[in-house]
Amino acid sequence: MSNPFREDLVSRSRAEACTVVIFGATGDLTHRKLVPALYNLAVDGELPHGVKIIGFARREKSDAVFREGLEELNKEVSRSGHDASLWEEYKESIHYHQSEFTDIDGYQRLAERLDAIDRERGGVGNRLFYIASAPEFFDVILENLKAVGLSEAADGAWARVIVEKPFGTDLATAQHLNKVVNNTFAEKDTYRIDHYLGKETAQNIMVLRFANAIFEPLWNNKHIEQVQITCAEHLGMEGGRGGYYDKAGALRDMVQNHLLQLLSLVAMEPPTDLSADGVRDEKVKVLRSLRQLNSPELIKQNVVRAQYTAGHVDAKQVVGYREEDRVDPESMTEAYVALRMHVDTWRWSGVPFYLRVGKRLPKKATEISIHFKSPPNVLFNATPGANEGGNVLVIRIQPDEGISLRMVSKLPGTSLRMEPVKMDFHYATSFGKGSPEAYERLLLDAMAGDATLFARRDEVEEAWKYIDHIERAWHESEVKPPMAEFVAGSWGPKEADDLLEQDGNSWRRL
Ligand SMILES: NC(=O)C1=CN([C@@H]2O[C@H](COP(=O)(O)OP(=O)(O)OC[C@H]3O[C@@H](n4cnc5c(N)ncnc54)[C@H](OP(=O)(O)O)[C@@H]3O)[C@@H](O)[C@H]2O)C=CC1
Ligand SMILES: O=C1O[C@H](COP(=O)(O)O)[C@@H](O)[C@H](O)[C@H]1O
Predict the structure, then answer these.
(1) Which reaction does it catalyse (predicted)?
(2) Among 77, 97, 296, 433, which residue is least crowded by beta carbons within 10 Å?
(3) Among residues 168, 508, 167, 164, which one has the least CA distance to residue 338?
């Protein structure tokens, strides 16, 4: 496709034209995230000229029907709105390819189609394979791509693969999948997606830390008392999600990937350069330094799991977790988890990292808060308001992306009183526009061959090592830790509050 929208704009990224083949193209991810992301990039003039999309899935569909379905969703979700005349041009670059994932003939036909596109384009045949299927098909798709030679790039071209989450269900399955992927594509051509890394504010963590001289000198256990990472969702198991989620649970679904990635960005040492491996080398060191919770006793002391009971969210009555569609009525899967973690490095020795994530909490909000130690209590200890809490730096990942710094200030007036105030930076007001969707940035990076915001093999495996201890204690130990409960629409179980209270701390109110 020639970029139909902004011929005047040259793409600002180093992304190169390619054909994007999406496996699982009739699914939710393709309709809600991937195709709208490519559309928005095209609207913004960021998509390289000549990008084509081939959707691979099982159902019989014509190109026209496939495009209509995509358009319906694009109208609903596109960040830049939906322009019918722009869509008319954009949709010409989208095609449908019907095949079973297991059918080798389907891949043979795909190879022929890709060759025809390259001939038509008269340029190099770069290919980006996006595996957006359920995880049980990851192996077979990779094996079939290899069998028909599609994992090999033509001279002067590249062939890359993006693999969706979940990347395995434990260390052993992740290692197996890594073997299959690396047997098909070189590690440099493998992009394990973690869409939280594509979120604007997650990317800003490194800039905040390493491009501002005021924070880094304070970014250690001498000045920081605790770090909290919260990822709250108000959604439950809508849209049939219960089938997948009840097998995964909050720990595997969110902590193993998104939350541990955020923690790594907060805790890592400055990389020697901004290359993909420079950054990922430092992140993986953090994961290796996590204090392992390798006994049921440690897990009982440091981890709380919970399910929600019926309650109200957004003023609507909602059912409890075990009553959700496609959830086992006797399920022992957590829809909420809170953890106290430690990063055993010199920088972070003695600083607790508290993480919590859950469904059916009061609102959707993800944030990281860095709680600084209080100053010596000598000057203002008798001043009203002196105990209002210390400095807190809050990185709002979503919504209302931004950063705020809480400090204590003198209240105007003749007497000395102190009150907490906030310096607040909002992306939307400071830069006059909303942030691009995470998938936009990540797709563009994959087209540019930049894997910095994708997880490397060793990162994924280190994260699973940590998670496996907890999963084993929950599901395999003789005396299983209890499953706490909280009312849907509340901020989680009392046990999670107790976890912090033991250290004299409390969760930040969002
Ligand atoms: N949805 C989301 O927001 C997110 C999803 N993900 C991950 O992305 C992946 C896809 O999720 P999602 O889009 O929600 O899944 P869906 O269940 O909505 O889609 C599955 C897709 O796979 C196709 N498919 C299933 N079986 C076969 C087969 N045997 N042969 C060919 N095609 C087949 C389906 O085709 P057909 O309809 O023709 O049967 C459909 O296109 C999962 O790994 C998920 O964990 C990750 C983050 C967010
Ligand atoms: O990966 C996942 O992420 C979503 C939350 O993503 P967000 O970008 O909306 O914060 C979560 O709902 C889902 O369970 C999980 O699989």
Answers:
(1) D-glucose 6-phosphate + NADP(+) = 6-phospho-D-glucono-1,5-lactone + NADPH + H(+)
(2) 433
(3) 508
